[in-house]
Amino acid sequence: MTDTKRSALVIGGGIAGPAAAMALQKADIDSVVYEAYPRGADASGAFLTLATNGMDALRTLGADHAVAELGFPTTAMVFWSFTGKRLGAAQVSMTLEDGTSGHTLKRADLYRAIYDEAAGRGIRIEHGKRLVAADESASGVRATFADGSQATADMLIGCDGVHSTVRRMIDPTAPAPTYAGLIGLGGYVRGVPVDAAPGTYHMIFGKRAFFGYALDFNSEVWWFANVPEPREPARGALASVSSEEWRQRLLDLFADDAGPATRIIEATAGELAASPFHTLPYLPRWHSDRMVVIGDAAHAPSPTSGQGASLSVEDAVQLGKCLRDVPTVAAAFAAFEQARRPRVEQIIKQAARINNSKAASGISRVLRDAMLPLFLKLITTNTKATRHLYGYHIDWAAPAA
């Protein structure tokens, strides 16, 4: 390593970007975060789960306090058939020895908390900076933005999500994200009585679509629906469908199902924004000599995994460690990929299996409902697998391999 302090351009101001900037700062590397949206990327999406492994990674960055009071703890989920039959239960996270558990929280709240934490540490975040080109040299990388401005640094880190621009700059032949065959919607509602304890997800394999909900500790129901749609909608096409159209479609889809889905949907006021699920199960190249992608830009699981945000923060911590300990940028990127690829791809495969079961019909649905209790019992008793997923810890003090 040289005595000159290294620098990085971080592309993307969602979850992975500010987390990466904090990890770089911890590794004594200066960075600037460049966000394409003029006011940040925190206004999109409904809610998500930050599992204990994600909370643990934030703790390594000293940032877990920023999200500890957001949302509500969730550790369990119960599965039901559309007839009202209980299919089984499983953990949605685990509780660490110090009492830390996974949290369900609004995506916008998580974005804002991580953004504010990074900004409070003196990390510069620039908005309205959409990356359009990047040029590598032996000494560094130059980024060009849509407004004509440029920036240079020793490295560039792509944290720009499943539709990443940086990914295509590293490898123009990189695979495009895969449409998962599902459209997601969700919302919040009060005043609808549900037979559920606070903090437990209830997942209903409906006759025509999938429905999930959880009750927070203030008696508000947080819900989501996954609607099977074989053909991928054109980019932006879902925005033309009104909330009332979606509400009526959902009511029709869940009309024959036991459970509170129709009552919850009917009582939900406000806009219903729909988005297609995309995954990136395998990316051949994660990095070049001076550029790397992390988070959803490198490996996007479906929301079904409940791990997207957690894996992004894990990536940030591991990348910071590798850049701290490995002599060259290119070698550090290679070490990062070697450390992360097996874990993330295994989680993506598991989530894909669940996605397929959500869209099951006919005999496939019958087989799923018959086998799911056995499967849930198996994974519930497999404490080793649970620890591997939710108890995963990156030791910052240990040297990177």
Describe the structure.
With 401 residues, this protein is α/β, with parallel strands linked by helices. The protein has two domains: 7-71 and 105-176 and 280-358, FAD/NAD(P)-binding domain; 178-278, D-Amino Acid Oxidase, Chain A, domain 2. Helix content is 33%, strand content 24%. The chain has ten helices and 18 strands. The chain has helices at residues 16-26, 52-60, 107-120, 165-170, 243-253, 261-267, 308-325, 329-358, 362-381, 383-390, and strands spanning 7-11, 30-35, 47-50, 72-73, 76-81, 86-91, 103-106, 124-127, 131-136, 141-145, 150-153, 155-158, 178-190, 200-205, 210-215, 220-228, 275-279, 291-293. It has a seven-stranded mixed β-sheet with strand order 6-5-14-15-16-13-17. Strands 8-2-1-12-18 form a five-stranded parallel β-sheet. Strand 15 (210-215) and strand 16 form a beta hairpin. It is globular. The model has no long low-confidence stretch (mean pLDDT 90).
